């Protein structure tokens, strides 16, 4: 039952994954990718992804079941590759001190979190027993034995990379495809090498570089919001595209209403790459928390510790309707966001891609310029 290698041809690739279009709705943790979103995108001919990185195994099982109950059999499940955190006392003390003013102003009691992250092992076991069509990973590489086990059960595996070396590592470990995430992307950077903090490649440089070095299909992610972006991703050598921000204002997305409102402002906010909310670089709409925390960068512990420590602040800010202290993840092209049903969004994306490709074809005259 080991799956056959994936095609580099976008239409064949889509068919192998059980969808009509090589358009993947990105997994978005934190309740954004509801089972309804995954089902609606898949019905529209794209590939829906369920973000399970922050789900306990029980919730993960329920959401997978909801998707299947709705008749959707082809979808991806996404996991965070995170080790158990055991922060030492001094680290926690410094972090608590930096966050104390926010705990105070929101009337919160600083209590140690019950856990920092969901247990990957239990999530993996569930993924294995659920015979999933596709599992994607972000934040780190998984052991090649995990990939082998998944593939032996017929599951295709996609790894996230932000550099050529990371893409090579996924290929070497046995992944079926690599999602190459450019710097434009909304949400967390999915890379794991130290280069994450140094050379940060946007899609225009990342996609062709990865494409030329690996021999499994590349999925382009980052800043793609319309058909011209999809055509560009394919032109750069990707076999498929993955869009996150483009679905944040979809009717079926679980995005908080305030977050949607901020994304729909006529004058768009700028985005920033920040470690303030979670301890791992992530791109979101710039707000007061990001700006203020910049002065205590040295006290911010790595993911998932900071993420757990800021969770009560973010939750309280959402309750009080204050977007300045919420994590409003969004990619650099968010100003092009559309608010519609995800079926309508996918339909428009497909139509626009055909138009963009036809426009390029017709302008065969461009070569006359040379
Ligand atoms: C709100 C939000 C949450 C995200 N959560 C995840 C996640 O759980 N797992 C993952 O692999 N990628 C996650 N991403 C990153 C996406 O997979 C993808 O790389 C990104 O959305 C592409 O850039 P774009 O937002 O400009 O389309 C998230 C992105 C956003 C915007």
Secondary-structure map:
Elements: H1 10-16, E1 23-25, H2 35-43, E2 48-51, H3 57-69, E3 75-80, H4 89-105, H5 120-129, E4 134-138, H6 144-152, E5 156-161, H7 164-173, E6 177-181, E7 187-188, H8 203-213, E8 218-221, H9 227-235, E9 240-243, H10 257-263, E10 271-274, E11 282-285, H11 288-293, H12 305-320, H13 342-362
Parallel strand pairs: 1-9, 2-3, 3-4, 4-5, 5-6, 6-8, 8-9
Antiparallel strand pairs: 7-11, 10-11
Helix pairs in contact: 2-3, 4-12, 9-13
Bound molecules: flavin mononucleotide (FMN).
The site of flavin mononucleotide has 29 residues, from strand 9.
Number of strands: 11
Structure class: alpha/beta
Specify the helix fraction band: 25-40%
Shape: globular
Structural commentary:
There is one protein chain. The relative contact order is 0.14. The protein has 13 helices and 11 strands. Helix 6 links the parallel strand 4 (134-138) and strand 5 (156-161). It has helices at 10-16, 35-43, 57-69, 89-105, 120-129, 144-152, 164-173, 203-213, 227-235, 257-263, 288-293, 305-320, 342-362, and strands at residues 23-25, 48-51, 75-80, 134-138, 156-161, 177-181, 187-188, 218-221, 240-243, 271-274, 282-285. Helix 4 runs parallel beside helix 12 and helix 9 (227-235) packs across helix 13 (342-362). The protein is globular, with a radius of gyration of 20 Å. It is an alpha/beta fold. Flavin mononucleotide is lined by residues 26-29, 32, 51, 53, 78, 138, 160, 181, 184-187, 190, 221-224, 242-246, 329-331, 333.
